[in-house]
Write a structure and sequence with these properties.
single chain; 397 residues; alpha/beta; Molybdenum Cofactor Biosythetic Enzyme, Chain A; Molybdopterin biosynthesis moeA protein, domain 3; Beta-clip; 3 domains; six-stranded mixed sheet; five-stranded mixed sheet; 8 helices; 19% helix; 30% strand
């Protein structure tokens, strides 16, 4: 058996990440432009202007967004300008409509050949400078940046129709076992429904992957081989069942024949039987058939691998120190991950087991929001002792 840390290191070593830095080849905005509707002027022309003593400027043109002014601003002139329009040559500021007598002139139907400026304005007023948002050559988005709507908008503002990104990994999911039945079918005596594929698929979705459901492979070498072939176009294969030491636990045998085995037991409880390797370059994680073991092994090993595939840097689950309200026995020197409900009271956390801890009791996972960790060298955790709790669901509340 290997340790949990050794197992995780081996799983993550199979995962590679590619992406790109994005630099700008243009200034954004490309030209000085108006931040408000108004008149482009030289600020010095408005010195001393007041509502009772306006400064009058000759209106020599108009420019809208997307257009270029045909004339340049000279002393004593103004050009009517719309928000986003490039600033005419010679202008250094914009005086807003409401700071002129335009409204009065419009109401009197007077021709706008001259405008009265009603206040002084500082140089650069209501002007967006070229490159104010993004300068040419600037590193705009670093490798590994998640593309939210705002980042997509930034890429569009640079004129980039495409960008190299880390796509969501496709994870093939295969359940194995003669005892399994698809959900929705009648349940014959001695059979159980295939719950593992659906809990694993939900976990894959939760952490950003795309599940590819391969169904059920029966406990026959050829059937398992055929199903695994369907997974070779995926980024990862996760199987459940067939990795223990029974006569019908064939998954690890297929793995040994078709690819390579890196390890197949981990010093943990639940989840000791865990096979990992690669089949023709596709990482394969063989989870146990017991549903609790399967889900816990996914959280510890598959989840960080999927996150790494997506370029994430923070792979660890949050954890807290909690005061135990139950006792836990550790009889065989493995690291225990006990299902617990963790709650916060003031500045302290408390943890209570969700009930019987058998690896087949899936409802113990449904009731849990954390996993209490009992180290390999600790034989018993008593009521009132402080433990580390790995949080499955995290809330600051």
């Amino acid at each position: 058996m290997i340790s949990v840390e050794e197992a995780l290191e081996k799983v993550l070593s199979y995962v590679q990440v590619l992406d790109e830095d994005v630099h700008s080849h243009i200034d954004v905005p490309p030209l000085d432009n108006a931040a408000m509707d108004g008149y482009a002027i030289k600020a010095e022309d408005a010195l001393g202007a007041t509502p009772s003593s306006p400064v009058f400027l000759d209106v020599i043109g108009e420019v809208s967004a997307g257009a270029i002014a045909e004339k340049a601003i000279e002393w004593g002139t103004a050009i009517r300008i719309m928000t986003g329009a490039p600033l005419p040559k010679g202008a250094d500021s914009v005086v807003r409509f409401e700071d002129t007598d335009e409204a009065l002139l419009r109401s009197n139907r007077s021709p706008l050949t001259q405008i009265g400026v009603l206040c002084q304005i500082p140089k650069g007023k209501d002007v967006r400078r070229a490159g104010e948002d993004i300068a040419r050559g600037e590193l705009v988005l670093k490798k590994g940046t998640p593309l939210r709507p705002q980042e997509v908008g930034v890429l569009a503002s640079l004129g980039k129709a495409t960008a190299w990104v880390i796509r969501r990994p496709e994870v093939a999911i295969l359940a194995t076992g003669d005892e399994l039945m698809d959900i929705g079918q009648p349940l014959p005596e001695g059979k159980i429904y295939n719950s593992n594929s659906f809990s694993i698929a939900a976990q894959v979705l939760r952490y950003g992957g795309i599940p590819k459901m391969l169904g059920i492979a029966r406990d026959r070498f050829g059937d398992i081989e055929d199903k695994i072939k369907e997974a070779l176009s995926s980024d990862m294969l996760i199987t459940s069942g067939g990795v223990s030491v029974g006569d019908y636990d064939l998954v690890k045998d297929v793995l040994a024949k078709q690819g390579e085995i890196s390890f197949w037991t981990v010093r943990m409880k639940p989840g000791k039987p865990l096979a990992f390797g690669a089949i023709r370059g596709v990482p394969h994680l063989g989870l146990p058939g017991n549903p609790v073991s399967s889900m816990i092994n996914f959280e510890l090993f598959a989840r960080p691998a999927i996150l790494k595939m997506m370029g994430k840097k923070k792979l660890a689950k949050p954890s807290v120190e909690a005061i135990m309200e139950s006792s836990i026995q550790n009889s065989d020197g493995r690291r225990i991950f006990a299902r617990a409900m963790v709650r916060r009271e003031g500045e302290r956390y408390f943890a209570r087991l969700t009930g019987p801890q058998g690896s087949g009791i899936l409802t113990s996972m449904a009731r849990a929001n954390g996993l209490v960790i009992v180290p390999e060298d600790v034989k018993v955790v008593k009521n009132g002792e402080v433990v580390q709790a790995l949080m499955l669901d995290w809330s600051e509340e």
